[in-house]
Amino acid sequence: MFQRLFGRERHANRAITDALYAQIVAAARQTVFYSHWNVPDTPLGRFEMLSLHMFLVQHRLRGEDGVAQEIAQVLIDEFFLDVDHSLRELGIGDVGVPKRMKKLAKMFYGRTAAYDDALERNDHDGLTAALARNVRPDAGGWPEASRLAGYVADASRQLSAQPTESIVAGTVAFPVANGG
């Protein structure tokens, strides 16, 4: 037990988690989202894209047992630690962080429920509406929401085709968003 908690296995798991999280962040930072699809290049817009990609991995790992389930939980923990750190970097003080974290967690889980429902029903229009409502609530119309919904559906299919063994070994691959 001590070997698992403090030994090589813990360091290997940390390396896997770090690798997966870095790949999720890289996918969320694809410039086409911000330059061509009009996702706001703001802290909240970046939170939306990171949340969306975190959801996709969680959606893929749902129902898995053992190590995959553990990795899914550690990734969520890492995501919220990253959000906490980002809030602090934005200058939000110790008193304000818990309140904002609670709000952001509620936002994350509300969004993931909507995205999950639309993906499960293969409802492109429902997914488009959920993305528009969450990513661009200020926009009356957001034509690029349909492109983002297509990307999300493609990413979900691509992730579901990836072997669990590959993911738990530290590799998760997202499609490249096309700006054309």
Walk me through this protein's architecture.
This is Ubiquinol-cytochrome c chaperone domain-containing protein. With 180 residues, the protein is mostly helical. The chain is built from 9 helices and no strands. It has helices at 2-6, 8-28, 31-35, 43-61, 67-89, 96-120, 124-135, 145-161, 164-168. The longest helix is centred in the middle third of the chain and has 25 residues, at 96-120. The chain is globular. Residues 1-9 have low confidence and may be disordered.
Short description, anyone?
The protein has 180 residues and is mainly α. 73% of the residues lie in helices and 0% in strands.
Which helices and strands appear, and what pairs or packs with what?
Layout: H1 2-6, H2 8-28, H3 31-35, H4 43-61, H5 67-89, H6 96-120, H7 124-135, H8 145-161, H9 164-168
Helix pairs in contact: 2-4, 2-5, 4-5, 4-6, 4-8, 5-6, 6-7, 7-8
Q: Give the number of domains.
A: 1
Query: What letter string, H or E per element, gives the SSE order?
Result: HHHHHHHHH
Largest sheet: none
Query: Which class of secondary structure composition applies to the elements?
Result: mainly alpha
Q: What Rg is obtained from the alpha carbons, in whole angstroms?
A: 17 Å
| Average of per-residue pLDDT values | 87
> Given the C-alpha coordinates, what overall shape results?
globular
Helix content: over 70%
Portion in strands = under 5%
Number of separate strands: 0
Amino-to-carboxy terminus distance: 52 Å
> Can you count the helices?
9
Which regions have little confidence, pLDDT < 50, spanning 5+ residues?
1-9
Domain Ubiquinol-cytochrome c chaperone: 36-174
Protein name: Ubiquinol-cytochrome c chaperone domain-containing protein
Family: Belongs to the UPF0174 family.
InterPro entries: Ubiq_cyt_c_chap (IPR021150), Ubiqinol_cyt_c_chaperone_CPB3 (IPR007129), Ubq_cyt-c_CBP3-rel (IPR014569)
